[in-house]
Every structure is written in C-alpha cells, then in structure tokens.
Amino acid sequence: MSIAESGEFGLIGRIVSRLDTGSATLLGPGDDAAVVRAADGRVVASTDVLVEGRHFRRDWCGPADVGHRAAAANLADIAAMGATPTALLVALCVPAGLEADWAEGLADGLTAEAALCGAGVVGGDTSGGPTLTVAVTALGDLGGRDPVRRNGAHPGDILALAGRIGYAAAGYTVLSRGFRTPKMLVEAYRRPQVRYAAGPEAARLGATSMIDVSDGLLQDVGHLATASLVGIDVRSDAFEVPDQMRDAAKALGVDPYQWVLAGGDDHPLAATFPPGTRLPDGWREIGTVHDGSGVTVDRKPWSGPLGWDHFR
Amino acid sequence: MSIAESGEFGLIGRIVSRLDTGSATLLGPGDDAAVVRAADGRVVASTDVLVEGRHFRRDWCGPADVGHRAAAANLADIAAMGATPTALLVALCVPAGLEADWAEGLADGLTAEAALCGAGVVGGDTSGGPTLTVAVTALGDLGGRDPVRRNGAHPGDILALAGRIGYAAAGYTVLSRGFRTPKMLVEAYRRPQVRYAAGPEAARLGATSMIDVSDGLLQDVGHLATASLVGIDVRSDAFEVPDQMRDAAKALGVDPYQWVLAGGDDHPLAATFPPGTRLPDGWREIGTVHDGSGVTVDRKPWSGPLGWDHFR
C-alpha cells in the first residue's frame, strides 16, 4: 500500500505502532507534543537532516538502515556534548508513491538505534513532498555535568578518538563504484557503530573539548582547533587500517588515509583531554594540541580534502 | 549570492548571526548541540515540517513569512500542552541556487516569531536538496503543571477557542484565486496570530483537554473527541464572520463557514473546560461536550470536508 492510499493518519498510526519510547519518556507520540524527563533541569538538543540522493540512496540502504543512520547522526551529537540521549523526534517528508512499508522500516531503524542508548522516539510529523527527507531532533541529559564544548582545548592536551573511523567512507566508495562487498565496509556505511557511552565517559574524565566526527576527522577536529584558538596535530600512525580496508583501497586505487582522515559518517567522538589523562579502553590517543592554529598531520599540512561540504 | 556560492559554513554563519537566543538558552548555536533550561525537570517537544509547494509558496509568502508560519505551527503545539515555548531548532533543506538572502529572511521570521513568546532559535542544520523544506522542533516548559492532553474532555464540559479562526484559510483561498487582497486575510495566512499565552492560561484554569487547530477546527476538535471518548458539538453562531471575510466569501463564491470550521493555519487553541469555568478575555465558548462520539455542528453532521490531509 502506498502512503497516498493509507493517508496521513493511517501512515502515522502504522509508524507509531512500531515505536518504543525510552525510559525518559513521560508522554510519547499522539498528542500535540511529547513530554520528556529532563532530570537535571537542562536539556541538550540537536537537529540533523538527511535528504535522499545526498545523504542516502534507497538502492544502497534499506529503510531500517536509513533509520539507523539518521538516528546515529543525531544521537552522536548529543553524546559529543557529554550527554546521554533521551529522545528523538522525526519529521518525515515522503513522496506519495512511496510504499508505507518503507516508512515502517525507517521507524524500526530509528527505534532500534535509539534503543542502543536507552532513548525513545517520542514524536514526529509526516508530510508528502517530492523529496524523501528525514529530519531528526535528538534530546539528551547532562546528568549534572557541564556540557563539553568545542572551545576548551589547551596547548599540551592530547587528542583522542572513540569509535571506528574510515569504515563508512570506505563503504561509501565501494557502493559508489557499484560493488556490494567487502560487506564489513558496506555495513559500516549502512549502520554506523557509535560509542554513545564514550561521550558521558569523556565528560567525567575531564575532556576539555569534544565533537562527533560526521564530515571528516580533519575538518571536524579543525572545528575544535578554531573554537579553542589552538593548533592540533594528528598522528597518522595512530590509526590501524584493517586488512579489508587496505585491500579495498588497493583494489579501488584509493589512499586509505583519505577515508580515515577525511571520510565522514562513522560518528566516532573526538575529544581533547588534559595531558596525563589515563584513557580508558575504547579511547585511542591520535594527536596533540599545541599553540598555533589549524590542523596538521604528522606536523605537515594535509594535501587532500579535509571533509564534506553539504552544498558542494 | 547563492547558497552554493556561500557554502555550508558560510550559510550557517550568515543565519546564526541573525538569531536571537531566548532567556532559557544556556548554550546556543555553534556546537554539536544546544543546551536549554528545563527548570521543572521535564521538557515538552514537538516537530513540524513545511514543504515548498505544499505548505508554502515563495510567490505567496516572503522568507520572513515562511519563518513566522513554520515557527508558529510548532510554538502553538507547545502552547497546546499548556506549556511555555523555550526554544526552536531548525532543519533547512535548500536548493543550491536559492539566494542566501532568502535563508536569512527565513531566520529573521523564525527568530521574530519565537521572540513573541520569549523563545530563542538555539540550533539547526542545513543541507542542499532539490525541495525547499523547513523542519522545526520546538521545546517548552510546563512550569510545574501537568500537560493538558487531548484525552481528558468529559461530558458536560464546555469547548472554547482562543485566537482567530478562518482568516488564514480565507487568505489561502484569496491567494489561490490569484488575488492579493483583502490584505487582512492574506496577511493572516502569511503570519498567523497565535495566542501563545492562552495555553498555560488554560492549564491554570483546569482545561481538561486542548489542541491547536492547524488542520481545521472540526478535524482537530475531532481528535479531542476521539481521544476523550466523547462527542463534541460546535455552535456555528459562536463565530463572528468579520465583514471582510464575508465580502471575500461572497465575491469568491465560498461559504465562509467552510473557512471557519474546516480551514487550517490560524493555530488558535481549542480546549475543553469543566462546566461553570469562567473564561477570561480571549477565550470564547464555541460548543459543548456530550456522551457519544464524533463532532457535530449545531447538533447535525457537517456535510463539508473537516480539514486537511497532508497526503491527499
């Protein structure tokens, strides 16, 4: 059944029946607005929008994959403030001919990804429209801690990363060349594995700045450098390039460090910590903060693109 | 300058420079997420999406008008829970050829409308995309009160309305027939006048259910009836049809009650109150709640359309 046949309220009913609300949800979908617990008297909020043909392709990703990706992009922003995600709201624009099954699959993916960090899908809106578009807003709870901003890095701090990097970009290249394997890389593009708990963990460890790497490591670390008025050097030998990525890079004629240093979509968290901070498992030191400005790789300017501009 | 020329970060910078953050904003745009005060330990949240060609036309509305309309649609949802809006987040998809001025005008309209209820624009996201789309999320504060839901109306309650109704629908008809006057009606469509403060006021008065009328009075009051398992009768003589609306209706060959009873976009608040509630200025009794189901007009079924389905 197409969405035009089921009508707006039919579609909403089909979607809502598939959603799980999280433990912070006081009032879920079905009223004018949701009500979400904000125990510490503040709420963290972020919005991201995914547009078909630009952020996803239906022939590359199933509807649940798109749901996972849309949720992850937002939930990672919440984690990057040092907060724990509590809720998602979703605005969905769908062409009238789209199968209602697709929207249901999307709802399944959104709900499943949110559940990974205990968050629920609490509300949303649907509209017809010529371009399939998914705009997600995530809310989160700081648990009494200060937010970790982009502007607190100091010379001498270490730069560390939590989560995979380069995998999703490699999967994107694989798909864009018409291949479907290596599966590990393609699946990494379809469903990023974000270490949400690393965000609050970094805040407790005293992280001085943090960002989620969505557009490319060098570009996003560059935002930390700019906001903090410091320079940041990234060490290329800090990254393991797994065999499957190295083999795929060779077969496709790509420098795998282009994926690692400038590829987006994995959403690892990059944070700076005071010198001497003992990083727990899951965090890997990848560079240092120094006086100056900009981002270098092994103390040299990086010659490739830094990341992704959504208008170019 | 087009948005493609200014680039993603150029556009964001131009927009952010025009935003005002409200008094509840602890951290505004520029980081991974915003931080908003949620003093009572809960946050109210709602999302609405506007798509060009479906919810607005650039030849009918300037960019600031679209900003006012997008903000009002969301802020009214927050008010309809009995809450005070605190913040907006905006996800914007724009064709690359759009002038950056347009996005700036949109930001001005969003900010100005939010300021009417003390809220700020605290964050957002922008993307290129073929269809101009504005998805807004609003947050709000219940101030220690229970949310006013849709499901609490009781037989014997009175139905009341705060705010104009029919004006925006009349303006829509005027514009769709190629006219630009009467100005009052066209402006009502471009910039709804929502009585935001009436939402918390209704909660304090003991409203048993509430909704914002965005798709048509009978359809939206029908949601109250369905959720509350009651019938609701609307009295047509409760509505004043102003002269300009009556004249326009006559000239256009339209029954003005179609605008009043089934027209959307004005976003008045409809609420039910226990019998004997003394309604303050600005609230007008328009009907009664009774045992049964569905919505009637003057005790009879309404033969026209009830409202708007965004997929038909």
From TrEMBL, chains A, B:
CDD domains referenced in this protein's UniProt entry, alphabetically: ThiL
Binding site for Mg(2+) 4: D32, S46, D77
E.C. code: 2.7.4.16
Record function comment: Catalyzes the ATP-dependent phosphorylation of thiamine-monophosphate (TMP) to form thiamine-pyrophosphate (TPP), the active form of vitamin B1.
PurM-like N-terminal domain span: 30-140
Other facts: Reaction mechanism of ThiL seems to utilize a direct, inline transfer of the gamma-phosphate of ATP to TMP rather than a phosphorylated enzyme intermediate.
UniProt source species: Actinoplanes teichomyceticus
Membrane-spanning ranges: none
Residues the entry annotates as binding Mg(2+) 2: D48, D77
GO MF term list: ATP binding; magnesium ion binding; thiamine-phosphate kinase activity
Protein name as it appears in the record: Thiamine-monophosphate kinase
Family, as annotated: Belongs to the thiamine-monophosphate kinase family.
